[in-house]
Design brief:
The protein is an all-alpha fold and 292 residues long. It has 11 helices and no strands. Helix 5 runs antiparallel to helix 6.
Length: 292
Amino acid sequence: MPWGEIGLHGLGLVLYPGLLAGSALGLLLEVATAWAMVPERGGPLSAARRVLAAGRPVGDARGFPLYSLAALLLALLAALQVAAPYNPVPAGDRNLLVAGFALLGASWLLWTWGWNRGELDTRLMLAVQLCWLVALLVPAIQPQTFKPQTIGNTLLNPYLAVKVACALLYLLCLPALLHLLPESAPQGVPGGAGRRPPGFEGVGFGLLRVALWLPYCGLFASLFFPPLGDDPLELLRFLGIVAGSAAIGVAISINLIYRGADFTRRFYTMVVVPFAWIALGLGMLSAAIGTR
């Protein structure tokens, strides 16, 4: 790889759409989510104080946050793959598989930490991740590419029905993927207290969620909406789609939390998983029709 491309990848990793931009956007969404989930505990300023307080280690703060730091690096790698306006990474270098496996790796590192604490519903998370992979990869069947911007530009019938089904499936998976449900968030939901004194590793995974908003919601915008180039209005459009998908994920999570853990498990196993099979079937059918 030429040094110029290495520099562009490094710029994207540190500034935009990586660490700096992802942290700024993620912090805004984290505060808004904390306010929406616990509105009785005050307004936006109170929510911001709770989010910032979660970044201070309490209890046993010894050790090095190895798992959460590795997960953060994987989340930043996934952020580089989104088809965001002004992304310094060339469009030909972005790959859906890289984003998918990076985000899966970040989730599995959280699993390792949460499983040891006994505070993670691994069956639910595994089911959600498999459904998310269907929503992520099925749109790539017809165009036969893993470049997000190419998939986003594909809007031909009957492929449109596949994209709509996968987009809906993607949104249904967001509450668990973004650690907005107690069953998927051993570090605690946004603005809420962790289940135990978290230490450095718990703080690290709380910060990880801040960095996950842009990769997950940015991939949604990249896959299901056509990119139109580097333009300030297109940047606002992209951020609007990111914020809109995040708001839908938060709304679903609030509803599921209100109904309880048993309902959440039934919802994902009896509604989301069968719907993932339907989306997969639609993708295979569209691919078969397209080869004729």
